[in-house]
Amino acid sequence: MTTAVVTGAGVVAPNGLGTEAFWSATLRGDHVIKPIDRYDTTRFTSRLAGEVRDFDAARYLPSRLLAQTDRMTQFALAAADWALADAALDTGELARTDLGVVTASAAGGFDFGQRELQNLWGEGPDHVSAYMSFAWFYAVNTGQISIKNDLRGPTGVLVAEQAGGIDALAHARRALRGGAEVVLSGGMDSSLCPYGMAARMAAGRLSTRDDPDRAFLPFDPDTDGHVPGEGGAILVLEEKDRALRRGASIHGEIAGHGATFDPRPSAMRPGNLGRAIELALADAGLAPGDIDVVFADADGSPENDRAEAEALVRLFGPYGVPVTAPKTMIGRLCSGGAPLDVVLALRALREGLIPPTIKVTPGYALDLVREGPRPFTGTAALVLARGHNGFNSALVLRGRGKDHR
Question: Of 245, 269, 297, which residue is a domain's last?
Fold first, then answer.
C-alpha cells in the first residue's frame, strides 16, 4: 500500500500568513475574531468574523491573475506556492501528468460573484467581467493552481462544507495510490461579503453576539453558534519512499480516513461521527488508545457539540484523550478549517506541544486543552470535521517527532 506523507504546507489564516506565523500565533493564543470592517453590517444579525487582514495579493501573484480571481483563489494560489517551496520540490523534474491537484471549497468565489452582479444591475451587462464565467465556481482553485503550475495529473474538487478539507486530502492520497507522484491538496474559502454572510445567516448557525470574547464557544454551555472565518491551507502530498529518496523533510503521514453521512434530523436516529472515527482508525491500523490528541470539529451549536462530545467519550472514555479546538481564535473556515487543523496537528506531533482552545469553559467530560499549550508525547493525532447537512470526516495522522524523516 502507498504511504502518503506531507512534505510541504502553505497557510493563509486570519492569525498568520505562512506556517511559522500561524503556528506561533496559535501557540500564543492570538484571538483575532473582530467586527467585520469590509462593509456596513448594520442590517446583519451576525457581525463578527475571523478576517485575513494582512494579505496583499499583488505581492504574491502575477498582475494578470488579479483581475480574474476571487479572494479565495488568490489565497489558494499563494498557499500552493508556499507549500511547494516548503517541500523544496522542483516540479520541472517530473512528468506533468504525474502531478495532481485536489482541493475543497464550500462556497466558491462569492466575493467576485457579488461584485459582478452589482455591476450587472447597477451599470449593465457590458460591465460584467468575462472572468465571471469561472471565478465564482467552487472548482476554480483546483483549476487555477493546475494552470499556474502546469500540473496535468489527477485533479478533483470536494464540496462538503467543513468536511471537504479532510475529504480532499483523502482523495489526494487515493490519487497517489493510483500512480500520481505528487498531489497538492487542501481547502480554501472566503465568503465574508454581504452575499456570503446573508447565505450563512439563513442557515441559522451563526452567533449573533457582538462580544468577540463570547461569540464562539464550542463545548461551552453558553455557546451561541459559530463565527465564520476565511482562509485555509494547501499541502504537498507524496509517496513516502519517493520523498525519502529525494531527501525531503517529512511533516507526517496521512495514515487513515473515514467518512460517513448523518440521517436527516427528522429521522430521529443518532449521527455517524463516531463511525467515521472508527473507520479512520481501522484504516490506520490503530485502536482508540493509540490516539494522543484530537483536533475537534467544534461546531458551536449545542446539538452538534453534544453529538461530538458523546462520540469522543464513547470511543476514548471520559477525559480519555486531550482535545483541542484552536479555531476558537479564528472562527470556522468551512473547507479551509480542517487543513489548518492538519497543519497544527502535524506540528504538534513534531514539537510535542498541543495548541490551546481559548475562551471556553467546557460542559462535557472532555479533556479540553485550555489556557495555554500543553506539552505531550505522542505519535498519532485525530482531526475531525463535519459539514452542514450531515457530512462527517475523520483523519488520522502519524508523526515521529523532531527527527522524523
Answer: 245
Q: Do 10 and 51 reside in the same domain of the chain? A: yes
In contact, 19 and 10? CB cutoff 8 Å: yes
3-state helix vs strand vs coil in the chain, percent to 5: 40, 20, 40
CA pair distance 94, 122, nearest whole angstrom: 48
The CA-CA-CA angle for residues 371, 372, 376, to 5°, reads: 125
Q: Which amino acid is residue 356, in one-letter code?
A: P
Distances (CA, A) of 367 to 103, 145, 309, 351: 32, 39, 10, 20
229/266 same-domain check? no
Report the pLDDT value the prediction gives residue 404, as an integer from 0 to 100.
Answer: 39
Q: Which range marks the domain in which residue 130 is found?
A: 4-245
Whether 266 and 222 map to the same domain: the answer is no
**Model confidence, pTM:** 0.96
At residue 382's C-alpha, the angle toward residues 377 and 385, to 5°, is: 145
Q: Is 77 left (phi over 0), alpha (psi -120 to 50) or beta?
A: alpha
In a domain, 29, yes or no: yes
Does residue 380 contact residue 348 with C-beta atoms inside 8 Å? no
Question: What is the pLDDT of the chain when averaged over all its residues?
Answer: 93
- Please report whether residue 330 resides in a domain: yes
Among the candidates 195, 221, 245, a domain finishes at 245
How many domains does the chain fold into?
Answer: 2
In the chain, how long is the greatest CA-to-CA distance?
A: 62
- Cα–Cα distance, 344 to 52 (Å, whole number): 18
Reported as a single tens digit per residue, the pLDDT across 208-226 is 999 999 999 999 999 999 9
Is the C-alpha dihedral spanning 327, 330, 332, 334 positive or negative? negative
As given in the structure block, the three cell numbers for residue 195 are: 452575499
Average pLDDT (245-266) is 90
Asked if the structure places residue 232 within a domain, the reply is yes
For CA atoms 82, 85, 89, 95, the dihedral sign is positive
